[in-house]
Amino acid sequence: MKIIAPQGLLIAALIYLLAVSSCSDNKGTNQNEPNQYNILPMPNKLVAENGQFVLPKVLVISADSSLKNETQILRSFILTQAPEQVVEVQYQRSNKSHIQLVFSDSVAHQEGYQLLVSAEGIKVKAATAAGIFYGINSLSQLLSQKDQVTSIPFVRIFDAPRFEYRGMHLDVGRHYFPPSFIKKYIDGIAMHKMNRFHWHLTEDQGWRIEIKKYPKLTSIGSVRKETILGHAGASNPSFDGKEYKGFYTQEEIKEIVGYAQMRHVTIIPEIEMPGHAQAALAAYPELGCTGGPYEVSTKWGIEKEVFCTTETTFEFLENVLKEVMDLFPSQYIHIGGDECPKDRWKLCKKCQSRIRSEGLSDEHELQSYFIKRIETFLNKNGKKLIGWDEILEGGLAPDATVMSWRGVQGGVKAAQLGHDAIMTPQSHCYFDHYQSDDPSEPLAIGGFLPLQKVYAFEPIPKELNQQESKRILGAQGNVWTEYMQSEKHVEYMVYPRIAALAEVVWSNPEHRNYQDFSQRLHAQFKRYELLEIHAANHFYDINKVHQLDTLLQQFKVQLHSWSSDTIRYTTDGSPVNQQSTLYQQPIEVTQTMKIQAQAYTNNLEVGRLFTDEFVIHQGIGADISLAHQPVKKYTFHGKNTLLNGRLGGKEFADGEWLGFIEKPLVAEVDLKTSNNLQMVNIRFYDDPDSWIFLPEKLTVMASENGADYTEVFTTSNVLNNNMIPLNLEARYIKIIGNPISSIPVGHPGVGKPGWLFVDEIEIK
Length: 764
What we know:
It is a single chain. A hairpin with a 4-residue loop joins strand 23 and strand 24. It is built from 17 helices and 36 strands. It is of the alpha/beta class. It folds into four domains: about 1-160, Chitobiase, domain 2 (2-Layer Sandwich); about 165-505, TIM Barrel (Alpha-Beta Barrel); about 540-615, Immunoglobulin-like (Sandwich); about 625-764, Jelly Rolls (Sandwich), CATH 2.60.120.
């Protein structure tokens, strides 16, 4: 026998390549390979043993009668993989069966399981039906190794999840998806051993749940007259002119809830309040501060119209929540609580009267009052409240759970205050962000979240002590659908990033290894294909590692592809084909160069064309100091990214751009010796729709001693690329870029300070 350590599970490229010897038997004579154990997420302990359990002509499954659901799921899967297989089920304990599903007190964790495959047969042991289900899940991954099941490798698995809360979210307010897709989405959650589905049901752009007491919520609130085209930040937006509608009846919801329960997935409904309420106000304008009229929002973003804090509003919300609680057995109800502008409350006599009568300080405390009232109502009805981290503002409701999305600090604060928290920061868990820098990527809200970054997420912040860490229930991936109109687009954004997050929340940190995960992911892609899941295939792209020698001012670039047998490349700008240079060793970059590379398997292209650009100049490796630090969120690798020979891409959050706001860029470069300088090129990002503007003014200064500077260039006509001739001797270069102080009329964020993003300072 041998224990397969997680870092040793290097899985073969495709699950269909699993070879089972014709002499396979139940005697343990065949030696199994690590690539026969394609299980994701990584189990806590997997002991591989020699031998294969050969499936008999008639396969008998025995289980307790309370496990009929789990047994039928397993039977269905076996017949899908092996249609000719005869499968019999016995709902009683039997030692003569080939697969036994057994309740056992020896498994301590409520969702843990043991999976034992030996000459005697297959046994799944657990303390609960959920544990049995997850054991079946792992067994199914061993079964799906090839076109037709004939045998299963011997193995002993002892497994349990790290976190209690392992969730995925879906916004159906912006775009509605039919019940059939919601079920498929739940299947994907269960497939990855996740157990929560956060269903975002109401928004400014649409109310999607039938409430019988208030029929206008769906007759009016579920319909918008048209939808914005392109990005929400466009200064002159256009619309499609097409009515958009859709909602879920209560009967449909009951069916979906039951479907999820069979897969041990709990649905947590979200009813947004006090903000993101414009669809509800369009149906019942008396619930707003102005009385309307309102319309279901046709564009994306934050609307000023919010629920008024009158007794009429609270009566309405309590009645809505009564029906919601009757539909969803979940312990938790999510009430949103995020992005609630206070503009209307500040001008509303009723809300100001509420502030005075309740002895509140301001509108932030009014929001806290609002949330606390709703929590009291939920608690009286045996439910718990979850809200986005804005519910911390003005004081947290006594028993609330915080979902931390604006970074991890909301979760840290909640845990330190003695509250439970679920981590879902934009930086690692927002699956509506771009997952590659490919120009052909479908439109997304922005940001950059590749698979590797999701996998690198650690839900427990270092700031928390051992006791506080227990308050972190788990993590969740969020899918906001402003720019996802189709089911395929949702799947494209979710898969395979869901697989990375699933391993984050299930597997212990010491068992996680990205290289190993990448190998096992090949098998998962085949499962996606079998289930007709439209997964993004960036996983198959060429990856690179580059090392910079600052002394020699050169790079060594190492290329790698998980999915190919050869890589060919060019460095002269010519197209890559099968006659291009074969990659065999790291590429040395000693001059400004653009590398293009393509991976091949069996002489066929796999993955996208890889391109990367390196700029060699005198400033690489020089010392740089900044008078003002960039915003931490847009600092990534620090100030040295300005002198690292790497160019930022189309996304300002790709790690190469540094972002400043309300502070100028003042960068001083020390070349360490005096040099004859011919040129300096400074690159800025320009995206007014994201509040990012070119500097109002750019100044370049030079010095021999770092104290006495001479201005050598200044302009108010700043470009994306500013190629500035110098022709001088200098050791020090100082660059000053002044951001615009106020965003001009005609742009989103008018009147607010503008952002300034800068990348490489190229010196020659």
